[in-house]
Specification:
The longest helix is centred in the first third of the chain and has 21 residues, at 2-22. The protein contains 4 helices and 8 strands, in the order αβαβββαββββα. It has helices at residues 2-22, 46-52, 76-81, 149-168; strands at 27-29, 56-57, 61-65, 71-74, 89-91, 95-99, 104-110, 121-127. The chain has 169 residues and is of the alpha/beta class.
Length: 169
């Protein structure tokens, strides 16, 4: 019985540590509740303003929600020209998640004709692991309350294990 208690104790500790690592990456909702849409004519910089208000780190993801549109990650040159002919990444599924796997600048445009020229484009600057935001704090701003299903299951398993451990100990 003592071996079971010790094993259960270490399992709870292991899952707790793993859970804290999982929650260190955030998912941001591009455009908030409006999603990835053509901005109003008087607010063509809305996406760059939004991106500059957030601090993105490697491992973070951004979610684009849209209808009858697409999202492309392009080079800086293609971004400036709204050129959608050679994207590095393309998706048109209406619910696109793009995860940042390295630091640097990422350039996004809409692939729908004329949308980029109307301001549906965005530059995201991803900090390296050793950088801090100008205010010395972690990511700020609107974070989507959407975590992948795997995280939810992990939290549930951790809860059950803590409950069982409280009964056993």
């Amino acid at each position: 019985m003592a071996a079971f208690k010790t094993s259960l104790f270490w399992l709870v500790i292991f899952i707790s540590l793993g859970n804290s690592l999982v929650f260190s990456a955030f998912e941001f909702q591009v455009g908030g509740t409006q999603g990835w849409v053509v901005p109003p004519t008087n607010d063509s910089k809305v996406y760059n303003d939004w991106a500059s208000e957030n601090r993105f780190q490697m491992g973070n993801a951004i979610r684009f929600k849209y209808k009858k549109d697409s999202v492309m990650e392009v080079t800086e040159e293609d971004y400036k020209k709204c050129n959608s002919s050679h994207p590095n990444f393309f998706s048109n599924n209406g619910n696109t998640v793009y995860r940042f796997d390295h630091s640097g600048s990422f350039y996004f445009i809409s692939g729908a004709a004329g949308h980029c020229e109307k301001g549906q484009r965005m530059i995201v600057k991803v900090m390296s692991a050793d950088e801090e935001s100008p205010l010395g704090k972690k990511s700020a701003g609107y974070r989507a309350a959407v975590f992948e299903l795997g995280v939810s299951k992990l939290v549930f398993v951790q809860f059950v294990l803590f409950y069982v451990a409280s009964l056993v100990f």
